[in-house]
Amino acid sequence: QVQLTESGGGLVQAGGSLRLSCEASGRTFIMYAMGWFRQAPGKEREFLAAINRGGFLTQYADSVKGRFTISRDNAKNMVYLQMNALKSEDTAVYYCRMGGGWGQGTQVTVSS
């Protein structure tokens, strides 16, 4: 059973940066692509970024392309989301995903 634990969320001013982390356990981490999603109040959960098993292929939603960077450390079973130039519309609960499983999420609030 996969377990995912996100951290690094918080309150930040518009234009600021945050780095989210997600620790995975329960499955062989290197066998899975990883993704980040978010869900704002009253909205559906949306895809943000994905990274392949080896960490050399990435994909981003248009809304975050050029501002967010996904990365992973297979030795530590960790995936990261570096978020720069944050906007108020980035306010949401952020989730990582692996093999169909979800973490509990971490809240990101961007004040304008």
Distance between the termini: 39 Å
Radius of gyration: 13 Å
Q: Please state the average pLDDT score.
A: 96
How would you characterize the largest beta sheet?
7 strands, mixed
Task: Tell me the series of helices and strands, N- to C-terminal.
Answer: EEEEEEEEEEE
Question: What structural class is derived from the secondary structure elements?
Answer: mainly beta
Low-confidence stretches: none
Classify the helix fraction into a percent range: under 10%
- Total DSSP helices: 0
Characteristic key phrases:
112 residues, mainly beta, 7-stranded mixed beta sheet, 0% helix, 53% strand
Please describe the topology of this protein:
Blueprint: E1 3-7, E2 10-13, E3 18-25, E4 34-39, E5 46-51, E6 58-60, E7 68-73, E8 78-83, E9 92-98, E10 101-102, E11 106-111
In short:
With 112 residues, the protein is mostly beta strands. It has no helices and eleven strands.
What does this structure look like?
This protein has 112 residues and is mainly β. The strands form two sheets. Strands 2, 4, 5, 6, 9, 10 and 11 form a seven-stranded mixed sheet that branches. The model has no long low-confidence stretch (mean pLDDT 96). The protein is built from no helices and eleven strands. The protein starts with a strand and ends with a strand.
